[in-house]
TrEMBL record:
Gene source species: Nonomuraea fuscirosea
Binding site for GTP: 197-204, 279-283, 341-344
GO molecular function: GTP binding; GTPase activity; signal recognition particle binding
Full protein name: Signal recognition particle receptor FtsY
Pfam family, one: SRP54
Gene field: ftsY
Length: 390
């Protein structure tokens, strides 16, 4: 009987426990026990957590650690720079010019200051000018003028010698030439600048620098990557543009340069920009090939706008050889100005004189380094003063 009672008590206790447990389980608002976090669950250290991971975790109802996403490529919006204006750049870059050109000036001043100026000295003066790429005819003119003036002066102070030489060099460079870059809008239509020249002279770099400088002057610019020969050329140009917020129009690699130029001008008109600059390829395969290509680019642009400037880019370090190649371009398109690059890398600054003379157009821009703002509107006086020293 005792055993029977014991069994009943045990059954009752078990039943009670079971019912209680069940009631407890069904109680509304019951919290689920926190799931066990596997100890090996990977977590990212604070600084490596992908952006937004924290916000996601806050909004989530589960207490599981935020899911670890594969590191997404961080899209960095290119920072748009504010380049300096074009004015006064050549003065800022005068030091660089003086570094490359002042040996010429020092040599000439020393020779001209000698007490006795015999034929040997004049020959040496002539040789120095020719070596500096001044060109034969301008050199003769300078020497002749100097000889006459020196005779009149008799004895010379260093200031007088410097003044004479300054006057002659300036006369050869011609300060009266119109060196303004024609980049004024035509009503609603943008001005168009076409950049031409031999490969490696600095066309793309100059196009990029010019875009910066125009943006620095408050203009809106669109770039046309009409060098479709290599995709890298368009990339290079686009990078320049992105830095200053200028769009680059490009076409497929190996595509038609003229159609890129056309699209760039169309975009320029559509977006009401001030200037469209078109960078071209400089392949000197054959003169007729070049003529066909550049001629077509120009004609196509002229369906929509006016080509205001055709800038020939010339590498100052290539001397007479570069000049012969430049001549071919001048025969193919109507050059309106010269961008003389790498003047920081040669003592032969006399090329300013000879190239203007041979092509009959002024040097409008001077490249004085690889830096983004190392392009300046050419200033004859600053140039001559850099040669002669202050
Ligand atoms: N030192 C110096 N280098 C320059 C200047 N202009 C361009 N370059 C360099 O010349 C090289 C060729 O330039 P790039 O624009 O690609 O020539 P492109 O083939 O005519 O388009 C690059 O390494 C430029 O950095 C300049 O004024 N001074
Ligand atoms: Mg290029």
């Amino acid at each position: 009987m005792d055993g029977y009672l014991g069994v009943i008590v045990i059954v009752a206790v078990v039943a009670l426990l079971a019912v209680g447990g069940l009631l407890l389980f069904l109680r509304p608002g019951r919290k689920t026990p926190p799931p066990v976090v596997p100890p090996e669950a990977p977590t990212l250290p604070e600084e490596k957590r992908p952006a937004g991971a924290d916000e996601e975790a806050e909004g989530a109802t589960t207490t599981l650690p935020p899911p670890v996403k594969p590191a997404e490529p961080v899209v960095v919006e290119p920072e748009v720079e504010v380049p300096p204006p074009s004015a006064g750049r050549m003065v800022r870059l005068r030091e660089r010019l003086a570094r490359s050109q002042s040996a010429l000036g020092r040599g000439l001043l020393e020779l001209l200051s000698r007490d006795r100026l015999d034929d040997d000295v004049w020959d040496e003066i002539e040789e120095r000018l020719i070596t500096a790429d001044v060109g034969v005819a301008p050199t003769r003119a300078v020497v002749e003028e100097l000889r006459t003036k020196v005779k009149v002066l008799g004895s010379r102070t260093p200031e007088e010698v410097r003044g004479l030489l300054r006057e002659q060099l300036l006369a050869q460079i011609d300060p009266d030439l119109d060196r303004t870059l024609h980049v004024k809008k035509h009503g609603e239509r943008p001005a168009v600048v076409l950049v031409v020249g031999v490969n490696g002279t600095g066309k793309t770099t100059t196009t990029g620098k010019l875009a910066r400088s125009l943006v620095g002057d408050g203009k809106k610019v669109v770039l046309g990557a009409a060098d479709t020969f290599r995709a890298a050329a368009a990339d290079q140009l686009q990078t320049w543009g992105e830095r200053v917020g200028a769009d680059t129009v490009r076409g497929p690699e190996g595509g038609d340069p003229a159609s890129v130029a056309f699209d760039a001008v169309a975009k320029g008109i559509e977006e009401k920009v001030d200037v469209v600059i078109v960078d071209t390829a400089g392949r000197l395969h054959t003169k007729t090939g070049l003529m066909d290509e550049l001629g077509k680019v120009k004609r196509v642009i002229e369906k929509k706008a006016t080509v205001d400037e055709v800038l020939l880019v010339l590498d100052a370090t290539t001397g007479q050889n570069g000049m012969r190649q430049a001549q071919v371009f001048a025969e193919v398109v109507n050059i309106t100005g010269i961008a003389l690059t790498k003047l920081d890398g040669t003592a032969k600054g006399g090329i300013v004189i000879s190239v203007q003379r041979e092509l009959g157009v002024p040097v409008k821009l001077a490249g004085l380094g690889e830096g983004p703002d190392d392009l300046a509107p050419f200033d004859p006086e600053v140039f001559v003063d850099a040669i002669l020293g202050e």
